[in-house]
Amino acid sequence: MSSQKDSAGFFQLFPSIVLPMFLAVIDQTIVAAALPAIAGDLGGAERLSWIVVSYLVAATIAAPVYGRLGDVFGRRNLMFIALAIFAAGSIACALASSTGMLAAARILQGAGGGGLMTLSQALVGETIPPRERAYYQGYLATVAVTASAFGPVAGGLLTEHLGWRSIFLVNLPTAALAALLVFRLKRRPVLPQPFRFDLPGFLLFGIFIAATLVALERGQAAVSGAWAMSAGLAVIAFAALLLLVRQERRAASPLLPLELLRNSAIWRCDLMAVCHGATLVSLITFMPLFYRIEHGASASRIGLLLLPLTIGIGIGSITTGRLVGRTGRSAIFPSVGLTVVALLLLGASVFTTTLGAVPTALLFGLCSLFMGSVMGVVQLTVQMSSGKGLLGSGAATVQFSRSLGAAFGTAIVSTVLFLSLSASGPETGDAFVRVVQQGASALDSLPPQALAEIGDAFGQAFSRLFLCTAIFAGIGAAAAWTLPLRRI
Predict the structure, then answer these.
(1) Which pLDDT does position 458 carry in this prediction?
(2) Which of 451, 472, 442 is nearest to 36 (CA)?
(3) How far, in Å, CA of 121 to CA of 119, rounded?
(4) Number of helices (H) and strands (E), helices first, in the chain?
(5) Segment 261-268 long-range contacts (CB within 8 Å, at least 24 positions apart)
(6) Residue 329: phi, psi to the nearest 5?
(7) Burial 51-76, CB ≥16 within 10 A → b, else e
(8) Geometric angle at alpha carbon 412, from 336 and 287, rounded to 5°
(9) CA within 20 to 30 Å of 177's CA: 23, 207, 306, 477, which one?
(10) Distances from the Cα of 214 to the Cαs of 53, 397, 412, in angstroms?
(11) pLDDT: is 160 or 186 the higher one?
C-alpha cells in the first residue's frame, strides 16, 4: 500500500519536473552543433570552449546554493527562481554581439540552469524510497535521452535555417510552460533548521572556480612564454581553496557541508561525477569541431553525427536503472562501464582519425552507452548516504561535482588541443580557425605538402584530446571500483 502511495506521489510529481530537467539537459547539447557557426559569426574560435565553460562555471557555483536553500526554504519556491534566471539568460544569449558577451550571458543562464537538475533530483529523492528510485531513474533517463537526442539535431537545424540565436530563444516558451507545471507541486513542509547564508563561502568558492578555469584557459598562451598570468591565477585559486576549507569548517550553515564530503561513499561518487562530466561534456563540446575539421560536416550533419553520442547516454541510464532495481547491485555497473569507456577512448586516440565520420559516430555512441551506467548510481548512492536533512545538499554535491568536472575537463582539453596546434606552428593555428569558420574548403588553395602537414597536425591534436578524455574516464573507474556502498 505504501509503495502504491509512493508511486502515485511520484506520478503526480513527475510531469512538473520533466520540463525543468529537459531544459537542464538540452542546453548542454543544443549548443554543440552551433559552435562552429557561432565562431564564424562572432569570431574568437580559440575561445569557443568558453561558450560551454562559462555556463558550467555558473552552474557549478549555483548548484550548492540551490541545494542548501532548497533544504531550508523549499524546493518548489527555488524552482521558480531558477527558471526565471534561466529564461533571462537565454534572452541575453540571443542578443549577444561578441563571443565575450555570449560567454557573459551564458554565466547568467548557468546561474539558473544550475538549480534545475539539482532541485529536480532532490524532489524525486524526497518522494520515492531508495530501492524504487532505481526504477524511476529510468523515467528520468528517458527525459535525458529525449533532450540529449533532440538537442544536437534541433541545434543543427535551427542554426542552419534560422541562425544560431534561435537555439536560445526556443528555451523561452519551454521555460514558461515549466513554470506553469511547477505550480502543480504540493507545498511540502521543510525540516526546521538554523540557517545563515554562507556568503564568505560562496565568494571564496566562486573565486576558486573562476581563477582556476581562467588559469587553465590562459595556459594556451604558455607556449609563447606568457605564463605569468596563469601562475598568478593559480596562486589565487590555491589560496581561495585553503580559505574556503577553513571557512566551511567554521560556518554555522556551510555552503559545502564537509561532513558529507568526508563520507567515503559520497566523495567517491562526487569524484565519479567529476570524471563523468569532464569526459562527456568535453566530447560534446569538441566532437563538432572534429567533424567540421576532419570531415567537413555542415551544422545539420554535425547534429546527426552527434546523435549516437547523445542517445547512448540515455539508453545506458535506462538499462542501468532497471538492472539496479531488479538486482539491488549498484556500484558494479559504473565500475565496468567506466573501465570500458577508458579503453574505448584510448583506442579512439589511436584509430579515430583514420575512420570515416559514421564509424566514428558509432564508436562514440558505444562509448556513451557505457557512460550511461554512472550518474543514476551516483545519485542513488549519495541520496542514501546523505539522509533527509541534507538531501538537497547531497544532490547539490553531485550536480556541482559534475559541472565542476565538465568545466575543468573542457578547459583542460581545450588547452591540450590549442597547445598542440600552436606547437605545430602558427600556420596550423590559423588554418584551424579558418576551417572552423569557413569549412574544409578554406584550405583548398594550399599546396599539397602544406595541406598534408596541417592535416597531420590536426590529427595529432585530436588524438591527444581523446587521450585526455580517456584519462578522465580511467580516474572515474578507479573511484567506482573502490566505492564502499555496492548494493542498495
Answers:
(1) 81
(2) 442
(3) 6
(4) 20, 0
(5) 261/397, 263/385, 264/484, 265/381, 265/382, 265/385, 265/483, 265/484, 265/485, 266/381, 266/382, 266/385, 266/386, 266/394, 266/397, 268/479, 268/480, 268/482, 268/483, 268/484
(6) -80, 145
(7) bbbbbbbbbbbbbbbbbbbbbbebbb
(8) 70
(9) 306
(10) 10, 22, 11
(11) 160
Predicted TM-score (pTM) of the model is: 0.73
Give strand pairing partners of 487: 329
Q: Which residue has the cell 573511484?
A: 479
Tens of pLDDT, residues 374-410 = 988 888 888 788 766 666 677 777 877 887 787 788 8
Give the whole-angstrom CA distance, residue 375 versus residue 398. Answer: 9
CA distances, 437 to each of 6, 193, 291, 389 (Å): 53, 54, 13, 51
Q: Which residues contact 337 (CB under 8 A, 6 or more apart)?
A: 316, 320, 370, 371, 372, 373, 374, 480
What is the spatial distance between Cα 402 and Cα 382, in angstroms, rounded to a whole number? Answer: 13
pLDDT digits (tens, 9 = 90+) for 100-138: 888 889 989 988 988 887 787 777 766 666 666 666 666
The answer to whether residue 7 scores a pLDDT higher than 60 is: no
Closest CA to 404 of 260, 272, 253: 272
Euclidean distance between CA atoms 338 and 271, whole angstroms? 12
pLDDT (tens digit, 9 = 90+) per residue, 168-198?
998 899 899 988 888 877 766 655 556 677 8
Burial 322-356, CB ≥16 within 10 A → b, else e: bbbbeeeebbbbbbebbbbbbbbbbebbeebbeee
- C-alpha closest to that of 95 among 168, 36, 39: 168
Q: Give the residue among 160, 180, 29, 166 at the shortest CA–CA distance from 91.
A: 166
DSSP class per residue in 298-318: -HHHHHHHTHHHHHHHHHHHH
State residue 470 phi and psi, 5-degree precision.
Answer: -65, -35
C-alpha distances in Å from residue 275, one per residue of 139, 309, 408: 24, 17, 10
